[in-house]
């Protein structure tokens, strides 16, 4: 079993990386073997995994220098493995497009994919070729969403893209669900938008709400997940609950 899950939303700052990292850590805490792939040139997930300093090889080296994919895999401080991101990915993005190498990533992952129960892919805040590569590989996509006006902007574009590549039989990707992030239920607008989401997308919305919790924002500076940093915090508990909900959704079907 290897469930490949892309975390995507073209909007920046909606909690993609926080979700990717804490979900990877939560799944690893349940003894599942997890690979996190950081596809963002900003490399935030790489920082949060505590390997920024020694992350010297990634998919860029695999593409341009034939570095083996195994040599791109690092051990995080949270028990999951990670293929780091970094600014070289900007050049990789251009190369995949120019060389017509769509699907490069799914081919690259083949030799190692069976080593994992879950592969979580953190994507950049644009619908560029790196994000498409991630969507190609994935069997499911999770969309983090902040409950604000305009939060749905761009999401329909993402949903259409996923549908298009699935219809063309290029991938079996389907939307696993929408995760409401940075929720503050004292805020009336957040509550309204959250209710609207439930009405409009029904079963696509995960029941678990991720609260706004400063511990989740502090954890990356320590190179660990919120789960490890403050296991009893609301944020950590919410991500553990989300992992449970995800497991029920994808393993018991
Ligand atoms: N639930 C949360 N509570 C508090 N801060 C959060 C939460 N989720 C994310 N953040 C913070 O918000 C910012 C954007 O989150 P991030 O996960 O990096 O979003 P994205 O990857 O979509 O750009 C970061 O500084 C992060 O630490
Ligand atoms: Mg990010």
Write a structural description.
This protein is an alpha/beta fold. The protein has one domain (3-246): Rossmann fold (3-Layer(aba) Sandwich), CATH 3.40.50.300. The chain has eleven helices and seven strands. The chain has a seven-stranded mixed β-sheet, sandwiched between helices. A hairpin with a 5-residue loop joins strand 3 (74-75) and strand 4. Helix 1 crosses helix 11 and helix 3 crosses helix 4 (88-98). It is globular and about 50 Å long. The model has no long low-confidence stretch (mean pLDDT 94). Bound molecules: adenosine-5'-diphosphate (ADP) and magnesium ion (MG). Adenosine-5'-diphosphate binds next to helix 1 and helix 9.
Q: What's the gist of this structure?
A:
The protein is built from 11 helices and 7 strands. The chain has 253 residues and is α/β, with parallel strands linked by helices. The structure holds adenosine-5'-diphosphate and magnesium ion (MG).
CATH class: Alpha Beta
Strand proportion: 5-15%
Gyration radius, to the nearest Å? Answer: 17 Å
Q: What's the story with the biggest beta sheet?
A: 7 strands, mixed
Q: In CATH, what is the homologous superfamily?
A: P-loop containing nucleotide triphosphate hydrolases
Which helices and strands, and how do they pair?
Blueprint: E1 3-7, H1 16-29, E2 34-38, H2 44-48, H3 59-65, E3 74-75, E4 81-83, H4 88-98, H5 104-113, E5 118-122, H6 129-137, E6 140-146, H7 155-167, E7 174-181, H8 188-201, H9 214-218, H10 226-229, H11 234-251
Parallel strand pairs: 1-5, 1-6, 2-4, 2-5, 6-7
Antiparallel strand pairs: 3-4
Residues 16-17, 40, 44 line the site of magnesium ion.
